[in-house]
Amino acid sequence: MPYRHAHLAVWCLIGVTVVAFWPGYLSRLDRSHWQHHLHALTALTWMSLLIAQSMLIDRRDRIRHRWLGRTMLGLVPLFCAGGFLVVQTMQQRTDVFRATMGDRLMWADGLSTVTFAFLCYQALAHRRNAALHGGYLLATPLPLIMAVVTRLPLGLVAPGTPLPAAFHPGFNLSMVITLACVVALWRWQPHRPAPFITIGVATVLEWIGYHVAPAVPGWAAFGVVIAAAPTWLVGGVGLAMGAAAMGLGWMAPRRVRPVVQRSL
User: Fold this and answer.
1) CB 113, CB 83: distance < 8 Å
2) Least enclosed by CB within 10 Å: which of 21, 71, 185, 218?
């Protein structure tokens, strides 16, 4: 089977994520918005699903793999809803971080959520092709690298460096690491590059957009609209996007009709 023991890499990513998010989130859960809890819970559940699915397919337990995989039909919409709601909470802040980083991270986090939905759609649509199915699923955690690296105390800038200059080095490093992981996954399965081209292009777009977003006309105004929108509407858009991705992905293999060769 392709991507054997992939769950070990996901375990490592979870471990680093716990370290990165401990000071600002995990150690102070009572001070965080429920939107962050929803996003964190769905993200952890998704990572756990990837681990379980990898272990089951390594053991060639295809029956449980298929049944457990159906949970993504409900999990992906919830994840997308949580992702968009976190973007809204960022726009509703009134501190210096929002003023200097809000427009940049609205692009980065919003694109990551859209990319996640698209990757899940492709994984479901190609569920009969093990290499493509696994590749698209393994690409889904890669946007998390940005959130992890930018929170780790790596000493990339001098203490007291003002935003956004203090955030840029960590973000740029996270993009480099993400693209390195994309190349590594591509070399792992070189004959099925589509999943890694997809996440690679999304990463480059995220990188470019992060740096140019504040200068894009109307982008800041869009952030104001997002901040003022009803919570149910923002979450509902994410939920609908995820549900559409799952519905289209589920139906995709049924639209592919096998070629029947006629005998002469």
Assistant:
1) yes
2) 218
Which residue is it, tokens 């998704």? Answer: 46
Cβ pair 182, 136 in contact under 8 A: no
Query: What pLDDT, on the 0 to 100 scale, is given for residue 261?
Result: 45
Q: How far apart are CA 221 and CA 227, in angstroms?
A: 10
Placement of tokens 């802040």 in the chain: 93
Q: How many angstroms separate the CA atoms of 256 and 248, rounded?
A: 13
* DSSP state letters, 28-75: GGGGS-HHHHHHHHHHHHHHHHHHHHHHHHHTT-HHHHHHHHTTHHHH
Taking the C-alpha atoms of residue 211 and residue 191, their distance in angstroms, rounded to an integer, is 33
Mean pLDDT of 96-105: 95
Q: Are 210 and 108 in contact (CB under 8 A)?
A: yes
Task: Among 38-47, 164-173, 180-189, 206-215, name the one with the lowest average pLDDT.
Answer: 180-189
260 three-state secondary structure? coil
The full 3-state SS of 204-221, as one line of letters, equals HHHHHHHHHHHHCCCHHH
Mean pLDDT, residues 48-63 taken together: 93
Rounded to two decimals, the pTM is 0.93
DSSP-derived secondary structure letter, 26: G
Count of CB atoms situated within 10 Å of the CB of 257: 6
